[in-house]
Amino acid sequence: CAQECLKLLSGIGCRAFQHHATLAECLLFEVVPPMDTYKRAVNPNEKYYLRKEADRSSHTEQGTVIIDDLALKGGSVYYITVRARNELGYEAISSHGGTIIDTSAPTSALILNAAEDTHAYGLCDAAPEQRCYKLYNNTNHHEVLDGPGSIAVLNGLVLGKDEQFALNHRIAGCQFDGFADSESGLYKMAFAIGTGPCQEDVVVYDDPHEHLLSIDDWQMEGVVAPVNLSDGNYYCSVKAINGVVVGGSYVTTVCHANAWIVDTTAPAVKVLGGSLETDTLIFTMIYNTSDDLSFIRAIRVGLGETRYDSSVLPWELRCRRTSA
């Protein structure tokens, strides 16, 4: 009869019950019967039972259990279950929502010809805003310096294009693609820009998605404007922080080895000499051109009657740079 009372709406809808031993009858009450009901029960085979919490008296036990040195597998889900038994032998079992064991750093899109690829003990210095609750001493920082053909991190703001040269020195941007964590998901993304690979001396690591509520709205790009960049080489770096809380986050850092070059100056051109063979009418000119930042893309030669025109021989392409 008591078990039936516990089953009714998980015990909430049954506050008391009446049991007749001879007739084997069980009557459940949704509300506690008045005290007069007990006094009128003169049959010794008929008894009333009141659930303990029905009269607002209870006894609570709570605490913390820590179990160390468990051989848990990464990528698996584990459930903590608690079973309680009272003095009358009634039992109740409850489990929490499950915990995913994540012992790996986030992954990224394709990385080829990596110059460096290491797993280090980053502790709590692997990334800004890294979760460090009950930090577990493990190789939690995956650091990569990519190589030619990699697409995880790209320069510039043209989607899918790794820009190498830029004239605009008032805006800077990085693209990042394919970062994910199949176990705990991504918690944060951050990008930085420096004057050398993996450096952040121009733009310190910043989360471009901090103002967004859902990961579905992430654009996977970082933009800084206005900024005043001097002519020179700049490099993008990206950090992905996974969703692990207890034990500390795992971090993947990808540094882009291909430089993004800001060049706001014209090439240097100097004519060293020239001659005209009157017999063959062959004109020869010796010149020198240079550009230390964005190189020389094309050279055109013209011939005119003054220093400022090409009326005799219109501008004619003589040399074109075909690759980086």
Order of helices and strands: HEEHEEEEEEEEEEEEEEEEEEEE
Please tally the β strands and state the result. 22
Taking pLDDT < 50 over at least 5 consecutive residues as the criterion, the unreliable ranges are none
Oligomer: single chain
Cα gyration radius (Å): 38 Å
Helical/strand content category: mainly beta
Number of contiguous helices: 2
Instruction: Indicate the mean pLDDT.
Output: 86
| Dominant shape | rod-shaped
Question: Beta-strand percentage?
Answer: 35-45%
Largest sheet: 8 strands, mixed
Please explain how this structure is put together.
The chain is mainly β and 324 residues long. Strands 8, 9, 11, 13, 14, 16, 17 and 18 form an 8-stranded mixed sheet that branches. Helices cover 4% and strands 36% of the residues. A hairpin with an 8-residue loop joins strand 16 (232-242) and strand 17 (251-255).
